Amino acid sequence: MRRLALLITVLLIITLTFTACGDMLLGVGTEDLLQAPQLSSSQRDVLKALTDYLGESIQLKYPRHGSFLSPLLFWDLNGDGVEEVIVLYTSTSLGKNVNIALMENEEGKWKFTFGTEGINTDVERVEFTQLHRDGSTQVIIGYTSLNLSDKYLEVYNYRDSTLQKQYEQAYSDYGLADFTGDGKNDLVVVSLNSQPGPVQITLLSSNGQAFEQPVVTSLDNRFTSCSQFAISSYRNGKSWIVLDGYIGAFLASEVLEYNGKLFVKYGLGTDVNVPTLSLRSQTDLTIRDIDNNGITEVPVVTEEIESIIDTERMYWVSWYDYVINQNRPTQSGIVDTYYGYFLRLPDSWKGKVSIEPTPDVHEWLIRDIQTGSVLLFVRILAQGEELTSNRTYTQAATIGNYRIFLAPTEKTTAAEKRTLIGGITILI
Ligand SMILES: [Ca+2]
Ligand SMILES: [Ca+2]
To answer: Are 61 and 71 in contact (CB under 8 A)?
Structure first.
């Protein structure tokens, strides 16, 4: 009966959170929502041990983002091969803030060994990592409010069946990578956007057992906020930061490299200024790993395609990772901001093709400027709209209610056809 009550509680919480905040959909994912009520037997055992210890029922708190989306976090914190569990929850007697309970398994029985109160009502994200070289494990819990407006992280160190707070900071985003090259992760924190003054990037690294004094880097003071943040790591172990932020109403990117002491802007001392080069009005055009190789690219809008009748709709765009390929974009092509997609064009077409409308309002084409030959027709239709054409169109992408069809002509090579058909990235 108690188990049933627990299951119903879990279900109710999921339903409540689900309806209270649409964002939860992104955080939990359909699979978790479907699976959550069917707790595994070890999850049920942990929950029963916790509620028995507390003497009251609890409401589980699901992390809203990140790779750990369960309120029961199984992890071997002390490295003995047996998982411990951190439970994120609230209860009537404990008030509104999230509480964390550390549960350890002793001879097959779950035991409450440590509990503490978090500093807000919800959990934004949880990470497990090793920041020190002594083999200890750290848990980073980012607390937030229901609407995700305030974010504050705490780094807990597991020791002797407790979680000790080692560091805390307000953040808009954070990430982990080994910048200093000692084989352990460093923590990089982006300051809260509401903080006065320039956007700041804090690097927290360890001397082995304890944290060094955090190293703070201020962004170009034109940035008023950070809206996207990514860490790229190359196979030689080098990591760098790529971010988007607002400069007035425009979006711009920045690339920061670690120089052995602190983060410096990519291109410092040269005429390459990434925020200036990437300044753009197209706010759907954010940094992204355009070719899915784990390294984030910055979009650079070259110019508007003025031959298309709708103004401020289509642009020539090149995506650069800067650090690996300094002068050569990873991909180049066309962004259609009306429908929200990027169409990669073969590299050999760069600067040699023009875009033209056709008499059909749903269609446009690409022409080789030198020979005058048409290379590609692009047609966009709503779902259910019939494709009536004597050209051989292939459906290359679906964006919401629209489908994008491409018809490369006989003037394109087989390799160019493959690039085109597989070259659409949905941006929205
Ligand atoms: Ca363990
Ligand atoms: Ca990439």
So the answer is: yes
